[in-house]
Batch of 2 targets.
Target 1
Amino acid sequence: MAGGVVGVDIGSSFLRAVEIDDASKARPTLLRAHEVPLPDGSVKRGEILEVHTVASAFKRLWSAGGFRSKEVALGIGGQSVIVRDFAVPRIPLAQIKESLPYQVQELLPVPVSDAVLDYYPIGEGQNESGPIVNGLLVAAFKQAVSVNVTAATLAGLTPVSMDLLPFAMTRVHTLSSPTSGFAVHMNIGANATSIVIVQAGVPLFVRIVPAGGDDATRAIMTRLSVPRERAEALKRDLGLTGAGSTDEERLAAEVIHESTSELLTAVRNTLAYFAGVRTGVAFDHLSVAGGATRLRGLASALAESTRISVVPVNPTAGVSVARSMRGHDSNEQMQTWITAIGLAVGSAA
Ligand SMILES: Nc1ncnc2c1ncn2[C@@H]1O[C@H](COP(=O)(O)OP(=O)(O)OP(=O)(O)O)[C@@H](O)[C@H]1O
Ligand SMILES: [Mg+2]
């Protein structure tokens, strides 16, 4: 598909969009980027709960961001999608896809008829019953897919693609730090942490862990009986490196450490699971993005906990940045748009 397209990342705290000139180009130009906050509770764990609220956020995003294209590349993630390693007898891909509804019910928490199923082959192998294909089964809940589409169409936009959020962010991470070996790509958001393991840039394994930066904020709110704004400010001030000088700060620092250590344990368990299934895996690096990554000291805690070297992501690795973007094109600011860029860039596929 030629022509401009806008990638829109529907997060739990922000609606974020970037416009590129042409997704079919090898190196599209990034023309515009903008974000608007989403009212509390309108999107939860990757699922739109208030479609009209989100539709008006889309409208605000378009008028404030000056986007020209009305074609949007949407994503789906959070608790609205399940990704599982899945091996099937070796038959043509079209046939594999057709047979999915009859094979996957036991893997899903919802009736097969309520899910949109897809399959990404990774490699070929052999088991007791013959040749097999190893791959990833992706099951997205129909309800979540259609509510995303509705939010955009209510705002007068035309959805042209729908991709997995973890795949979208992986696209940018892989361009930023390519390797022929194994790498871990992560996005830590407010309520969801996506973990993708790739080999030579191909996703082998995907997990979406229901944990993120808001866990610490909520824990501070409860334990210290303070409002959200205060809890958020304490978290940002202290991070993992501040000890605090008042009783309140000291307790908050403790809570941040506890909550972060739960997140790190979840990450470690996920990597350990993968290492148990695929022996002899050595990770080249771990790249991480997402708002929660800004927590001071998190990157080094992650490196220490996983024993993998943590590298930053260059958000514009796969695109050229238009002159009109200068002004908010610092690497730090662009970090915010990694998933939206991945959605836009991937929409031609
Ligand atoms: N400077 C900072 N220090 C610590 N945490 C921060 C900082 N800035 C943002 N965060 C945290 O980042 C999180 C939001 O991240 P992000 O914007 O990536 O989430 P989202 O995309 O809206 O949500 P999700 O991906 O989970 O749906 C919040 O928990 C917020 O507290
Ligand atoms: Mg996000």
Target 2
Amino acid sequence: MKTIVITGVTSGIGKALVHHFVKQGNRVFGVARNSERLKTLETDLVRENYKGTFVSVVADLASFKSLQEGVRTIKSHLHAGTLDVLINNAAIVPKQHKITEDGYELQYQVNHLSVVFLTLELIDYLQAARGKVLVTGSDAHKRARFAYDDLQGLKRYHALRSYCRTKLYNVMTTEYLKTHYNLSFYTVHPGRVKTEIGTKDTSRFYAFMWRLFTRKGYLPDETVDTYDWLINQDIKSGYYHQKAPRESLLIASNQKAQKYLFDETHKALTPFLTKP
Ligand SMILES: NC(=O)c1ccc[n+]([C@@H]2O[C@H](COP(=O)([O-])OP(=O)(O)OC[C@H]3O[C@@H](n4cnc5c(N)ncnc54)[C@H](OP(=O)(O)O)[C@@H]3O)[C@@H](O)[C@H]2O)c1
């Protein structure tokens, strides 16, 4: 039995991961922003009568205050002081440019800053269990450009460009953290998956294009095997797709760029971290 924290569990890949790991008998903490959808998920899990347990954690990854609250909830349940697995899965691709209450571009905060925040907040618990950290990334990162002077892409917002950039940051952060902590870190490219991500907070045209683009994609259930394999086998840290290592963009392994990104990220997170 493992203790697993998963973000973005009320739809798509995250929801499929919850069903899979609770069914196996694990204890899963599901982090989500929408309490109604979380209740529906809980009801579904109870109906299935799985072996494992599920703990709901309401937290909005677009708000550090809300995420701090979520972290407190998780920690209050980790009596043994250990956590086996963290899966940072939640992400968004909103069409409109938005700045969060904390002052960051929305995708930068949800898809990147909150990933690092949650990882650092739970790192002691993960280290105590010699645990694993997974991030749902994307090959979309290969279309991104790393700009030292504009990490948030504030000069000109474009939803997809911002998404690709934050997915690049997922790979870079995974690479950086693996050299600084004695833990396994993975980024998973799930492939093209039939989910709702491209239909939320967007135009009807983009939503239509997304449905067209993913109509022959994997079902969310078809992506869980890779996560299961990485969690339960002895696999070296890295970037993976369908149980196989995958090449990432060259800049992702550039140590100078990784350090710059991490230092800037850490600076942004310092006021909010329990142990800066
Ligand atoms: N679908 C694909 O083809 C594809 C391809 C490559 C990578 N990915 C990656 O796969 C991951 C999962 O996406 P998906 O395709 O399964 O899409 P999805 O169904 O939209 O799942 C994303 C999840 O993130 C949650 N979320 C969004 N903003 C949040 C916030 N501020 N606070 C807390 N939770 C938040 C969403 O909650 P709500 O239910 O409330 O919206 C949802 O549960 C993402 O990291 C994405 O980048 C997907």
